[in-house]
Design a protein that fits this description.
The complex is a heterotrimer of chains A (365), B (334) and C (336). Chain A has 365 residues and is of the alpha/beta class. Chain A is built from 14 helices and 12 strands. Chain A has an 8-stranded mixed sheet, sandwiched between helices. In chain A, strands 2-1-4-5 form a 4-stranded antiparallel sheet. In chain C, 68% of the residues lie in helices and 0% in strands. The relative contact order of chain C is 0.12. Classes of the chains: A alpha/beta (365), B alpha/beta (334), C mainly alpha (336). At the A-C interface, helix 4, strand 6, helix 5, helix 6 and helix 7 of A face helix 9 and helix 10 of C.
């Protein structure tokens, strides 16, 4: 259903590198069988991701943003193959990698997509030297024929992430959080991937170190033509790194689109609410909408549109019927009854974002 | 600074380790006036939480206050016994921590915890205390407080739990609240609600707040004044607006430039090279000098004091106006 | 697809925080790290642990170097003289030559005229061999099953853990007795005596492997969800290699602690079984055998035959246990 409505973001007919189609991941969170039997309870299913579709063009950054429990990290883990999706497809360069079953089938794709993790203190094996950590993908995929070649590759990678070859001899605990994240990036780059999934790569870092890592990631994207799927809860970071942004709420993508358009003309009420929470560093005294309510328990989400209990524009239809994903101009989709029915006009947040798109595009709306 | 509610003078916190004594907080001075929100901002390891813990007397051993004075309404509180400090904590200083679950006892209902705290610090009867608890829960925005008072902490969501913690901190109407990363564990939408609540309470009760955070956004939203810490030292202090709009210290300048902003389409963020020194290897002179783009000879040998007036101050030799007159003397207050 | 070359990167003085020690070789580097580590520090700071360590080492040396260190070879029948039987320890003054200790038999002799001190040294050798061997077998089995159980999860996990649960409902001694009894019925007597030592090792291992399996499973469940294991999965490392190269090195701490404490338990179990007469064959007496034999003479006043092996056993087990306790604390960052 959603793929029918999904327009390819690139108008020139190029195949996007990654296409996620109607992706769903459900977790069985029921108590053990014996407890269920004794307490007469039903099976409980957590729909962490429920029907998410988007596309990532080559060389671009697509970000998923949302509050905790919205399923953004689950999407990342499904895309990279750590979770097997309950339903849907992850097309990588035209092949559904989520549908591959044997290790031999998956193997060629492994080196083409890699992942950077959130916690720089947990993502490196504390018992391994840095050189061994970085060379693991090289050895696993047989990307170097001799020990010297492996060593020179390690040195290259370390230099590339702005560390020194001498750092390869050390253990992870000798590095600061930012340096560890550089090691993590070097490992991810070791197999020459085209696509990196970055799960909150800077949220455990201090602001000044975050800037270093974000700059490094942008430099690498330019130099190596990388494509990123970037997961974050920080809207300012997302604005800085992305080309495309998707907003998730309780396992669903409520809205996605080109970054500037999304931040300037947010359509979905949840997107607007999220934008309202951004602290005002300009000290402009901007009047912000008070945000009400909290994210409901994802095990027992509200009926219809999951956002309706917090939505100021909700009506009877929102409480019953799941909103369809509608295409918006310039690429992207929004899933909201109020937008569909025209009850909710497009809002222009020109004060936040400088005019991003040509008037011609606006006129076509 | 006689009208200050809390005054911290030349605070020094040390950690004796087997490899020598680490100085985690070094010569930090600031004060908070009644009803004021002072933001203390800095990166992890800057010593901001230690400063807060020292004020409420909850410094974890082997850390200890090795110098300076902490004064609350003219009374020294840094040299009190554990028992006397315990009475001040709660009655005169309230505390809010990052993780609401650690501040609440999971075995008792929130009502029982509130009532007990009120009974400990005031002369109310149990019935009055219960009424007051409900009032407090209503004040911090918990819906149906009469019913929710008998719930256990795990029955509340994260944001509601943090509201309960705030109610707990308010029990005895303290003059000062130390809030250590109160919104870091919360989602952005909840974060805005909690900050708005803190601001309102501060306004309504005249309570002063020391807001410790790593997030400049939180400071901009909530604080009146801000103190910036780096490697255990205070590098800049001043009114929020001036520090954020016109930061002086090169570290603050770098920090502000490193924050990505919505609407600014720069390709690269301005970054501070390197990382904060470990406590074992704080460079001589200004602690920031190896990363500072403006560092000159004096910065590498001589430590700048906070060149301060009442309103603002910056610890940087670039702003030493008397430098030509007294090249080797430390300018500013002694 | 672009590749990385070093010319593109520029080095940043980001690494200054830690002084580099590149010139040291990897071996001396590792040695230096070990001597400077927190574990070594806490070892030096705890006198009880140092004493326990010295005692353990002394006992090990005494046991394994017994053929060279022991004053008498108790297995050489030619050196035995029944005239030397039942002599008290060297410092005991008696009424006649038979009740007065002699310097050459420091801790006295037994009913066959064997030197008790030498018997203890040789006996401890058997006790320690059985103890070590059974711990090793239990460790290999327990760690493997624990790793698989924790990492694979699901039905495999349920199966292994239910077996472990059933195992835990039997006391260790009972399992050992069962296996020993089974072996005695199945094997012909001559063969059984030959294999008795191995049967004993298996019996003890079968009763203690659960400790390893449960601990390793728990640690594996924690490590499995850490991001470095997920990173290895994303790289495409085979699950067996992830278990061996990533998870295993990070669960060795608890395994070491369990191994030490289990060694003490194994030595005690062996002594108990030997005392009951179902342990090591009489041709290879262990501490337990010595205590059993000495027990017969306890009430006729020849206390040294049972007491000295008993004291040796207590000191050995206590020292090993103290080491285990210290190791547990030293490896637990929360208690540091």
């Amino acid at each position: 259903m959603p793929d029918a409505a999904a327009p390819a973001p690139s108008a020139n007919g190029e195949v996007p590198l990654v296409e996620v189609v109607d992706l769903a991941k459900h977790f069985d969170v029921s108590k053990p069988f014996l407890n269920r039997l004794l307490e007469a309870e039903q099976r409980q299913v957590l729909r962490a991701v429920d029907g998410v579709s988007f596309t990532i063009p080559r060389g671009k950054t697509f970000s998923l943003v949302g509050e905790s429990g919205c399923g953004k990290s689950t999407v990342a883990r499904c895309v990279v193959g750590l979770y097997r999706p309950t339903q849907g497809a992850v097309l990588f360069d035209g092949t559904d990698i989520a549908g591959l079953r044997t290790r031999a089938q998956i193997r060629p794709f492994r080196k083409r997509l890699q992942m950077i993790f959130q916690d720089p203190y947990a993502s490196l094996n504390p018992r391994w030297r840095v050189s061994n950590i970085i060379s693991e993908p090289i050895r696993a995929h047989g990307l170097a024929s001799s020990q010297q070649e492996v060593q020179s590759r390690i040195d290259d990678l370390l230099t590339h992430v702005r560390l020194t070859p001498a750092d390869g001899e050390k253990y992870p605990h000798e590095f600061s959080g930012g340096q560890r994240q550089r090691i993590s990036i070097a490992r991810a780059l070791a197999s020459n991937p085209e696509f990196l999934v970055c799960d909150e790569p800077t949220s455990a870092l201090d602001v000044s170190v975050q800037a270093q890592i974000l700059n490094l990631m942008k430099d690498l994207q330019r130099e190596l033509g990388l494509t990123y799927l970037f997961i974050s809860h920080n809207l300012a970071v997302v604005y800085h790194v992305s080309d495309w942004v998707g907003v998730m709420y309780l396992g669903r993508l409520v809205e996605w689109g080109e970054k500037r358009r999304l931040f300037r003309y947010p359509r979905h009420p949840y997107t607007r609410m999220l934008l309202d929470t951004i602290p005002d560093l300009d000290m402009s005294g901007r009047d912000r909408q008070p945000v009400a309510g909290e994210v409901p328990n994802p095990i027992n989400p509200p009926s219809g549109c999951a956002f309706h209990p917090r939505c100021p524009h909700a009506n009877a239809r929102c409480t019953e019927e799941l909103p369809r994903a509608l295409p918006v101009e310039g690429g992207g989709q929004v899933a909201c009854h109020a937008v569909e029915e025209g009850r909710l006009a497009v809002e222009d947040r020109g004060t936040i974002t400088p005019p991003p798109i040509e008037d011609a595009l606006r006129a076509g709306a | 600074m006689s009208d200050a509610l809390l005054s911290v003078q030349n605070l020094r916190i040390e950690f004796p380790t087997r490899r020598g004594t680490l100085v985690a907080v070094d010569d930090v001075s600031f004060s908070i006036s009644p009803g004021e929100v002072l933001g203390v901002v800095g990166e992890s390891g800057a010593g901001k939480s230690l400063t807060g813990n020292a004020i409420i007397g909850l410094l974890e051993p082997p850390g200890r206050v090795a110098g300076g004075a902490i004064t609350l309404e003219g009374r020294r509180i840094d040299n009190l016994s554990y028992d006397r400090m315990r009475r001040i904590r709660g009655r005169e200083i309230g505390a809010i921590f990052q993780d609401p679950l650690t501040s609440l006892n999971p075995l008792y209902t929130v009502g029982r915890q509130l009532v007990e705290t009120i009974l400990t610090h005031t002369d109310m009867t149990p019935t009055q205390a219960r009424d007051r608890s409900i009032e407090l829960l209503q004040e911090v925005g918990i819906p149906a407080a009469e019913r929710r008072i008998d719930s256990y902490p795990h029955q509340f969501s994260g944001g509601m739990r943090q509201r309960v913690v705030i109610a707990l901190a308010l029990c005895a109407n303290p003059r000062l609240i130390i809030a250590d990363e109160p919104t870091t564990a919360l989602d952005v939408s909840i974060q805005a609600q909690i900050l708005a609540l803190l601001r309102r309470l501060c306004r309504d009760h005249g309570t002063a707040v020391m807001l410790i955070t790593h997030d400049m956004g939180v400071i901009a939203e909530t604080a009146n004044r801000v103190a910036v810490m780096y490697a255990g030292r205070l590098v800049e202090i001043g009114a929020v607006r001036s520090v954020i709009k016109q930061p002086k210290h090169p570290y603050t300048v770098g920090l502000m430039g490193a924050i990505p902003a919505i609407g600014s389409d720069v390709d690269r963020l301005s970054q501070i090279e390197g990382s904060m020194p470990r406590l074992t290897a704080i460079p001589p002179g200004c602690a920031f000098n190896p990363r500072c783009p403006h560092a000159f000879e004096r910065c590498r040998s001589e430590r700048p004091d906070l060149i301060a007036s009442d309103e603002s101050g910056v610890a940087c030799w670039l702003f030493d106006e008397d430098a030509s007159d007294v090249p080797m003397e430390v300018a500013g207050h002694a | 697809m672009a590749t990385i070359d070093s010319s593109a990167g520029k080095s940043v003085s980001d690494t200054q925080a830690v002084p580099a020690a590149v010139s040291r070789s990897r071996f001396t580097d590792s040695l230096y790290r070990f001597l400077d580590s927190d574990v070594m520090y806490s070892f030096r700071r705890s006198p009880v642990t140092v004493i326990a360590f010295v005692v353990t080492v002394l006992f090990f040396v005494a046991a394994f170097a017994a053929p060279w260190l022991a004053p008498h070879n108790t297995f050489d029948v030619r050196t035995l003289d029944l005239m030397d039987a039942r002599l008290p320890p060297a410092w005991v003054e008696g009424d006649n030559a038979y009740t007065t200790g002699r310097a050459e038999f420091l801790l006295g002799t037994d009913d066959q005229g064997r030197d008790v001190l030498s018997s203890i040294m040789f006996g401890m050798r058997v006790s320690l061999t059985v103890g070590f061997a059974s711990v090793l077998v239990a460790m290999v089995v327990g760690v493997s099953l624990g790793l698989v159980s924790g990492y694979v999860g699901g039905r495999v996990d349920s199966l292994i853990m239910r077996v472990a649960d059933i195992q835990l409902t039997f006391p260790a001694i009972l399992i050992a007795l069962l296996i020993d009894g089974l072996a005695r019925t199945v094997l012909p007597p001559g063969v059984h005596d030959e294999l008795a030592l191995y049967v004993l090792i298996l019996a003890i291992a079968a009763s203690v492997w659960v400790n390893f399996a449960r601990t390793v499973r728990g640690s594996t469940l924690v490590e499995k969800n850490k991001e470095y294991v997920q990173a290895a999965r994303v790289i495409g490392i085979h699950p067996v290699m992830i278990m061996l190269r990533h998870v295993l090195p990070n669960v060795t701490g608890p395994v070491l602690v369990i191994a030490t404490i289990t060694l003490a338990i194994a030595i005690l179990t062996e002594a108990t079984l030997s005392f009951l007469g179902v342990g090591v064959p009489p041709t290879q007496p262990s501490l337990g055998t010595l205590i059993r034999v000495g027990n017969n003479y306890l009430f006729s006043g020849e206390w040294w035959m049972a007491i000295f092996p008993g004291v040796a056993l207590v000191i050995l087990v206590l020292a090993v246990n103290l080491l285990g306790d210290w190791l547990r604390d030293a490896l637990n960052p929360k208690l540091r």
